[in-house]
Amino acid sequence: MGEIREVDIEKYIRIGEFSKKVGLAISTVKKYEDMGIIIPHHVSKQSGHRYYTERQAEDYNRENQIVYKRGGKYCV
Question: Strands of 13-14's sheet, edge to edge?
């Protein structure tokens, strides 16, 4: 995937906003990235900024609710 054009950046959220939406510390989001649990939609080659979509936050929250309702925990 190529670089995100400036016009397209408005479609994405950066790691700080993403972490707030999913209720995780930024360090935990990065740890989950290393483990393959949460993968940024795009990482800028120039700045290293991680970009996520609203859909990724919604999906993570939905999956987390399912695990919580079943009384389970993510094994990390």
Answer: 13-14, 50-52, 42-43
* Residue 33 in domain: yes
Provide the whole-model pTM: 0.74
User: Residue 69 is encoded by which pair of tokens?
Assistant: 């309702």
pLDDT single digits (tens) 18-58: 999 999 999 999 999 999 989 999 888 888 899 999 999 99
Answer whether 3's CB lies under 8 Å from 46's CB: yes
Domain count of the chain?
Answer: 1
- Within-domain flag for 75: no
